[in-house]
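To fix ideas at the outset, we first show an illustrative case, written as a sequence plus integers encoding its fold:
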Amino acid sequence: MAASGRDVDLAKWAVLLDFDGTVTERDVGEMLLDTFAAGDWRKFVPMRKAGIISGRECLEREFACLPARKEELLAYATTHARLRPGLQTLADFCEKRGILLEIVSCGLDFYIEGLLNHWGLGRLRWTAAKANFVNGHLAMGYAEGHRICETAGHCKCARLEQLKDRGYMVAYGGDGFTDICPAPKADLLMARGALKEHCEANAMSFISCDDFGEIIRHIERGIAAAGALGSDARHT
């Protein structure tokens, strides 16, 4: 693919996607909490919004409401979670063109890995928070060496910044409060849900990501446009 007659290096583009509510039609973590949580897990959300607790603490408290029944939780997720239409097509598109595609999530590793394998997408790279099943409850943890932030716990910006430091242009897609921090750092932003509302309220440029087929078309146009702008800048 070319932009204004100039070649665009697609191998230097990366697509990072949130998992819950972006890759999936519904937030899988919330589905599990609504079904299995002991007590009112939603009481922590207004505390986060009021600044009483951090986003990291909110997520940790929410997931601590889940029982340590990994097999039962995963069985429910694989039965009820739905993949957003077109992700397989997007994965094939990126693979064919040498574009790096990864999932960056503040959700839990066991259901992300399980669902991707269930959907035949186990080849995709992903990072997520760790689920530790101990003493009858689930404790949210973090991979060794991965940056932890107060906004979201498992820092999504870490991977985005790492890729940009290596010279990648990054397209980022998300839907929630944990995506607000990485959003302005992306070269191409794809938003829905709460992230879309945040972008609209703050006059941030974005494209909707309700359907991955449409995202592919936007990525092609966005990459071409960014490639043209980058080439123009190099020639001034």
In short: The radius of gyration is 18 Å. Residues 1-7, 229-236 have pLDDT under 50 and may be disordered. The chain has ten helices and eleven strands.
